Amino acid sequence: MSSNSNGTGANTPESQLESVLPIHPTAARRGNPIVVQSDLTSYSNDYITSKFTNRGADVAVVEGQYIVTPTAKQYEFQTARKVAKTGLMMVGWGGNNGSTLSATILANRHNIIWHTKNGVQQPNYIGSLLRASTVRLGADPSTGKDIHVPISDVLPMVHPNDLVLGGWDISGASLDEAMKRAKVLNYDLQRQVAPYMAELGKPLPSIYYPDFIAANQEARADNVVPGTDKHAHLEHLRADIRRFKAQHELDRVIVFWTANTERYSDIIPGVNDTADNLLNAIKSSHSEVSPSTLFAVAAILEGEPFINGAPQNTFVPGVIELAERTRSFIGGDDLKSGQTKLKSVFAEFLVNAGIKPLSIASYNHLGNNDGHNLSAEPQFKSKEISKSSVVDDMVAANALLFKPPQEGAPVGSKAAKGEHPDHIVVIKYVPAVGDSKRAIDEYYSEIFCGGRSTINIFNECEDSLLATPLILDLAILAELLTRIKYRAVPSSGATASAVKTAEFAPLYPVLSLLSYMLKAPLVKPGTDVVNSLNRQRNALETFLKACVGLEGSSDLLLETRIW
Predict the structure, then answer these.
(1) N or C, fewer C-beta in 10 Å, the chain?
(2) Is 485 a catalytic residue?
């Protein structure tokens, strides 16, 4: 690598430890090791085609009695085997998450080994659901032992090292300088990866509307698209996506919002309530069209997936309708990395154990730029909303502990919502702790015969190192889901023409299968949000297995319970 003296880090010496250690298992390439031998699964050079029976139950309540009717509907899934050459364009590329993700991908790509005070460290993808966790395929018939494989091996998926990186930022700092500014990674890693980061250059100019993020971010905003014409800004972003895709000869681009949390946008009839109204509002540069909504619309109109990794309401009704109209994929909201992920597990544990949480109090403090932005009240409210809804479905599932909503109760009243634990969220900005976020949770619960239980949890974590693997998972899954199509299998009595015309179609545009990684999952309008982490993971695992003709996870293990 040639050196230069521009002071950007491109003159850093090459790694003296590169490739000393073998590639970490989470970063290894394994091809496509799974072959399902079944009449439910077929393979061609282009596709994996599987048959799957979706089993459920219809329940009617008649005079206090539950009448249950099992249901079964057959589908076929078709997964394109060729993995798209994929680009990841991050909004907020120069922020903590964007710069950390870029540096760690480069470290894995070049197998850069670095020294820490604890010894030698190698790059890996620990923290990634896809790359670092496994699913049970079945059992070895000769030993009875379970066989587990990495989730990323179930279907052909993009390897993180192959992602082509790009994006926008309101700060014009080069990527190596952005990494240094973030203060997330160990110095020896920064020193060695800096030349590769410098080669990535600077982020593209981004959209900056001061009303949507905290005033304390103005000092960073030196790299913005000029003017106030939002339609011109939309066309600018679309051109950026097309240029990036052509320049790198990509098949697919994932656009990912990892920039500052915005305030909530007001939902205004005639402005952002329908797709046409939203497009007209953009043409008139309406004040309630946020930058994140503009990026979402740009990606949708270019036919590329858009993921929102922040808590604001980017997906106003008009955005969802536009995604439906164009059959473009969207997913969100807000990365679920630490405290909220734990809360979704712990609250479910309490309720499923028959214990009644009376209050959940959550406190955080952190010192990175995310915390700085959230110190402003409008931006904090966006985060508070996404964090506060995480226990709703678990509470609603247990009418023995919590009174359900009352029919006819005034809209907005407690009776209309039903009984809930008191739930409060506090976030404070403490610069000294940097990216090392502190979180404290107190669970105060009712137990047997009027007793009380208090459980306190203290959690210290490096915020960006938990969040960046989620960005990888979301981007990789979004690309995969663009290659999966389905069709309903006609019933045995269907006409020949009905069977012939049942064509494969893409999935619904709102990618609720991404929920495991998100605090406030976006779901199909009119359907319930599932926040239970176990149910979210089980849904994803079951879907991936269905695409290769396997049943979902069965913990019944019936063979171990019978003669």
Answers:
(1) C
(2) no
